[in-house]
Amino acid sequence: MHDSGEIINFVRVFTDISQLKASQRQLEALASHDALTGLLNRRVFDDRLEHALRRTARTSERVALLFIDLDGFKGIHDTYGHDIGDFCLQTVAVRLRTCIRGGDSLCRRGGGEFAVILEGGDAASARRIGQRIVEECGRPLSIGARTVCLSASVGVAIRGCDGEDAASLLKSADLAMYAGKRSGGGAVRMHTARFALPKTRRLV
Hints:
By secondary structure, this protein is an alpha+beta fold.
């Protein structure tokens, strides 16, 4: 400022916050997505399921829930190690994305377990998508000189038929999926009232 009080110079200070913003976006992604596969994590998925059920509570629109478990994944993980196991999960995640619609929600729930919310999904469309998932997961994976074979068991529960709230749908889809595993795996099972938990829940 001049002695007369007239402003003769300006000083502008700029701070580049692009790195800070990038770090914030990364933290947000880590909070909502599985670090290995990039799919939604269990917490966000369960929130979306609750919201989907609330949106459709007063309508006739269906919500289908699919539980997916990779048959024998624990054996592959134990035999070939973490790197091969992680690669299998990442490959399966990519394949699963090709099986669902744009508005559907897909998550990894842990281990070799995944789940899908199909809003507006009736039994026929849920079975059709479930069968596509079984086919995609059943394609062999080439890992270097190795060929790894997987299969998937898919359990399906429909709001209005197999439960009204998130907890009952999650349980119904889980029961249907394990019924498929007890029958040999590699198939889609729709929930029915006759399903019961196996004595040993974890089958590989």
